[in-house]
C-alpha cells in the first residue's frame, strides 16, 4: 500500500516538473518572438519610409557603380561591340573634360571627338558712359565627348567617371555580337549606295565597314555628355548709335547740309520739269486748236 502512495507521489512530482518546463520554454519562445516581431515591424516601417517621396532637395545624386566590371563568361568567348552613353552634371565642364582626357590616356584609349559650348540663354544690357554698354549674359555650359577605350576597360572607365559627377542624368549600355553589328552596318550601307556604283566600289565599302566594326570590337565607343549649372558673365561692348551721335556733325553743319540738299532737290525738280517738255507741247497745241474751233463750235450748237 505504501508503495502505491509512493508511486503516485512521484508521478505527481514528475508531471508538475514537466509542466513547469513547458511553461518556461513557452515563455522563452514568446520572449524571443517579440524582438523578432519588433525588428520586422521596424524593417517594414523603414521600407515604407524609404518608398515615400522626400521633400528635402538632393545636392548630389549618383550611384556607387554604373557598370559591373566582372567579365561575363557568355561574352568572354565572343566578339562583342560594346557601346555606352553617359550624361551627367558636373562642377566645371572644362576641368571635367581635362580629367576625362587624362583618364582616357591612362587606360590606353583616345579621344574621337570633343565639343564644348557656352550657350547664351538670356542677356540684358544697359548703357554706360562714352558710348559703351555693359552686357550680362546667362550662360549654360555644355560639353560632349566621344571616347574610345579598350573594350576590356570600358566598364572600369565608366565607373571612374563617378567622382566627376554631381547628378547622373542618363546611362545606356549595349553589347552586340560582331556578326550582328557587321550585318547592321552592311545593310545600312546597302541602302545608301546608289544603284550605278560599280561592284569594286561596293566591295571596298564592305571592306572598310568590316574594318570599322573590327575597330569597334577592340575599342568600345563611349559617348559622354555633361553640363554645369548656369553662370552669369559680364562684358563691355560698344553702342554704335551713341557713338554716331557723339561723333556726328554740329547743328550748324547739319543745317548747311540741309540747305545744300534742298538746293539739289530744286535742281532735280527743274530737270524733271524740263524732261516732260512734250507734255507742254501737247497742251499748247490743244489750247490753239480749241481757240480756232471755238467759233465753229458755238455756231454748231446754236
Notable traits:
single chain; 302 residues; alpha+beta; 3 domains; 9 helices; 55% helix; elongated; membrane; DUF4349 domain-containing protein; transmembrane helix
Structural commentary:
The chain has 302 residues and is of the alpha+beta class. The chain folds into 3 domains: 1-56; 73-237, no CATH class; 257-301. It is 55% helix and 25% strand. It contains 9 helices and 6 strands. It has helices spanning 2-51, 73-76, 93-106, 154-159, 178-192, 199-218, 240-246, 251-275, 277-301; strands at 80-89, 110-128, 132-150, 167-177, 219-227, 231-238. Strands 1, 2, 3, 4, 5 and 6 form a 6-stranded mixed sheet that branches. A hairpin with a 3-residue loop joins β2 (110-128) and β3. The radius of gyration is 47 Å and the shape is elongated. Residues 46-50 have low confidence and may be disordered.
Amino acid at each position: 500500500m505504501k508503495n502505491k502512495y509512493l508511486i503516485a507521489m512521484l508521478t505527481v512530482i514528475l508531471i508538475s516538473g514537466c509542466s513547469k518546463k513547458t511553461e518556461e520554454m513557452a515563455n522563452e519562445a514568446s520572449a524571443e518572438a517579440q524582438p523578432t516581431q519588433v525588428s520586422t515591424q521596424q524593417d517594414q516601417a523603414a521600407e515604407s519610409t524609404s518608398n515615400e517621396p522626400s521633400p528635402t532637395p538632393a545636392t548630389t545624386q549618383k550611384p556607387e557603380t554604373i557598370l559591373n566590371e566582372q567579365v561575363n563568361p557568355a561574352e568572354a568567348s565572343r566578339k562583342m561591340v560594346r557601346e555606352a552613353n553617359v550624361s551627367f552634371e558636373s562642377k566645371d565642364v572644362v576641368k571635367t573634360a581635362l580629367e576625362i582626357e587624362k583618364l582616357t590616356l591612362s587606360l590606353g584609349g583616345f579621344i574621337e571627338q570633343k565639343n564644348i559650348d557656352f550657350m547664351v540663354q538670356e542677356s540684358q544690357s544697359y548703357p554706360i558712359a562714352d558710348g559703351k554698354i555693359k552686357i550680362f549674359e546667362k550662360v549654360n555650359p555644355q560639353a560632349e565627348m566621344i571616347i574610345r577605350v579598350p573594350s576590356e576597360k570600358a566598364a572600369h572607365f565608366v565607373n571612374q567617371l563617378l567622382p566627376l559627377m554631381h547628378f547622373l542624368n542618363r546611362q545606356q549600355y549595349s553589347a552586340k555580337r560582331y556578326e550582328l553589328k557587321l550585318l547592321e552596318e552592311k545593310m545600312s550601307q546597302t541602302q545608301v549606295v546608289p544603284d550605278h556604283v560599280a561592284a569594286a566600289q561596293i566591295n571596298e565599302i564592305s571592306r572598310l565597314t568590316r574594318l570599322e566594326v573590327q575597330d569597334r570590337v577592340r575599342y568600345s565607343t563611349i559617348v559622354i555628355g555633361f553640363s554645369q549649372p548656369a553662370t552669369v558673365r559680364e562684358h563691355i561692348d560698344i553702342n554704335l548709335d551713341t557713338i554716331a551721335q557723339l561723333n556726328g556733325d554740329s547743328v550748324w553743319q547739319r543745317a548747311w547740309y540741309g540747305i545744300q540738299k534742298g538746293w539739289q532737290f530744286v535742281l532735280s525738280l527743274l530737270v524733271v520739269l524740263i524732261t516732260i517738255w512734250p507734255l507742254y507741247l501737247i497742251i499748247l497745241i490743244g489750247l490753239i486748236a480749241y481757240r480756232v474751233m471755238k467759233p465753229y463750235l458755238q455756231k454748231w450748237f446754236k
